[in-house]
Each structure stands twice: as C-alpha cells, then as structure tokens.
Amino acid sequence: MSAYAALAEPHRRRILDLLRTGERPAGELVKHLDLSQPGVSKHLKVLREAGLVAVRTHGKQRVYSLRPEPLAEVAEWLEPYRMLWSQRLDALERHLEDNP
C-alpha cells in the first residue's frame, strides 16, 4: 500500500499524529482512539505495510514508532499546492491593504 492510500483514512492520520511525539505501545494508541483493539491493529498493519510505522517488541507489548521517510514523497507532491496557496494569500493580503 502506498503512503497516499494509507493517509486517506482519518484514524491512520490520527495514529501518526500520536506517534509524532514518540513511540507508543498499541494499547496506549487504543486508549486515545475511539476504536477497538482489532480496529487499531488493522490500521497499524496498513501503516506498517506503507512503511509509515515501525514496530518492536518490548516484553509482551508491541511498541510502534513513526517512520517519516515515506512522508517526504507526500510533502514533495504537496509543495506546488503550498506555493499556490501562498501566492493566493499574498494576493489577498495586497488586495486588503489596497482596499481598507
């Protein structure tokens, strides 16, 4: 699965947001999401397949961490759109300054 397809689902994006601050056990992710353990596991599997998360075993726990490398491709694709919005916001700012 591609990073784009994995990111299309809101719960998966929320999991990545939670992992942005550091690695977390699966059980902790379940506590933060309005999903069952099997539901979170399903999303974590998709994120692993897309290369967006890594997992390691710590005792009986599976601990997940963010792998940001696949997000670089997404960021690169978004860059022209970021520039487009920046240009439009600059034009709006100029219009508002010229027409108080």
Commentary on this structure:
With 100 residues, the protein is an alpha+beta fold. It has five helices and three strands. A three-stranded antiparallel β-sheet has the order 1-3-2. The longest helix has 30 residues.
Mean pLDDT: 95
Number of helices: 5
Shape: elongated
Category by helix and strand content: alpha+beta
Q: Which residue ranges are poorly predicted, with pLDDT under 50 across at least 5 consecutive positions?
A: none
What is the topology, as strand order, of the major beta sheet?
A: 1-3-2
DSSP strand count: 3
Our Rg estimate from Cα atoms comes to 18 Å
User: Biggest sheet, in brief?
Assistant: 3 strands, antiparallel
Helix and strand succession? HHEHHEEH
Q: Strand percentage, roughly?
A: 5-15%
Percent helix, as a range, is 55-70%
